[in-house]
Amino acid sequence: MSQPPYGPPSGAEQPGQPQPGGQQPPQQPGGYPPPPAPGAYPPPPYGQPAPGAQPPVYGQPAYAPSNQVDVGSSFSWAWATLWKNAGPFILATLTYVAGIIVVYVLFYVVLIGAILASAGSSTCGYDYYGSYSCSGGDLSAGAGIAVGLGGLLLSVGIFVVAILMVAGLTRGALAATRGEPVTFGMFFSFEGFGRVLGAMLLVSLIAVVSVITIVGPLFVAFFFYFTVMFVIDKGLGPIEAMKASFDLAKNNVGPTILVILLSYVIDFVGSLACGVGVLVSTPLTYLFGAHLYRRLIGEQPVPAPA
User: Fold this and answer.
1) pLDDT by residue for the chain (306 residues), tens digit each?
2) Which of 229, 206, 230, 235 is CA-nearest to residue 289?
3) Hey, which residues does 132 pair with through a beta bridge?
4) Which residue intervals of 178-237 are DSSP H helices?
5) Of 17, 144, 277, 291, which cross-links 74 as Cys (Cβ 3.0–4.6 Å)?
6) Residue 13: which residues within 8 A CB-CB, separation 6 or more?
7) Within 13 Å, how many C-alpha atoms sit on residue 7's CB side?
8) pTM of the model
9) Is 176 in contact with 290 (CB distance < 8 Å)?
10) Nearest to residue 59, comparing CAs of 231, 200, 252, 238?
């Protein structure tokens, strides 16, 4: 019996030989196997863009167009996350509210003390002609000095407490979107405080100047809504954070307007419960905004706690 000749059967294509027509079969560069099909990648870490995607350009709706971002899901996430971390969020808010109350008390102490000091330095009595008069103290001048000094202390004190409160609650809310443990201490961290202070001073200055246009402060609140989030989350400087916030709001008009309006409604409802409701409404609005921010810049927040 004859044996078949070695080699491939007649007419079979040999590896490495050109196919009829001179065309080479398509091969992967370097002989590597083809990449896995879409969807075969493991899920990305929370707070990171999906694998294979370009890093998001701040201001661009990399995660989803504005008409596909579900604001309702952001609120649901914020509500569930708040009650999962109710202790540190509510206690931190209570601490800052107490700080504001202390500032107000100091204002009235200075005011009343100056008035009493001015009145005590006055000498009153009847003169040679039988007329009653006072000399030495000037009650109106003392009251004016007290109001001026107390008003200055009140403004500076409230502004400083407000900056600390905004920075602290923003830091805690952003940490929650990444799935990090929320602790009471993180609400009082001074990390990046100088950048936050600079950003809020610039935004406040623009808001004051824009008052002459009547509607100017509304545009300031809209375009610079995400400024502090960019400062704390991405470590941007005041100017860079304001630019990033401006672009993000401009490219996502609908969701930004909704989150601002709903936040005002939430704060208003919280204030109706004799002021106690703000202990819940205030951190809720920060969580709400942080979740939406995370979605709009193209990153994936952790799922809502069960």
Assistant:
1) 444 444 444 444 444 444 444 444 455 454 445 555 544 445 555 555 544 444 454 444 443 444 468 899 999 999 999 999 999 999 999 999 999 999 888 877 777 776 666 655 556 666 666 665 656 555 556 566 766 777 787 888 899 999 999 999 999 999 999 999 999 999 999 889 999 999 999 999 999 999 998 899 999 999 999 999 999 999 999 999 999 999 999 999 999 999 999 999 999 999 998 778 999 999 999 999 999 999 999 999 999 987
2) 229
3) 126
4) 193-209, 216-223, 227-234
5) 291
6) 19
7) 6
8) 0.72
9) yes
10) 252
Two structure tokens written together for 109: 């102490």
Answer yes or no: are the C-beta atoms of 59 and 234 closer than 8 Å. no
CA distances from 237 to 224, 229, 241 (A): 14, 11, 6
Tell me which amino acid residue 289 is: G
**Torsions phi, psi of 37, nearest 5?**
-65, 155
Q: Which two tokens stand for residue 95?
A: 């601490």
Q: Specify whether the backbone of 59 is left (phi greater than 0), alpha (psi in -120 to 50) or beta.
A: left
Would you give the end-to-end CA distance of the chain in angstroms?
76
In the block, residue with structure tokens 């809720």: 284
Q: Give the integer Cα–Cα distance in Å for 80 and 77.
A: 5
CB 121 within 8 A of CB 136: yes
The rounded Cα 156 to chain-centroid distance in angstroms is: 22
What are 209's two structure tokens? Answer: 């100047």
Closest CA to 286 of 166, 193, 151: 166
Residue 174 structure tokens: 């952003």
Residues in the chain: 306
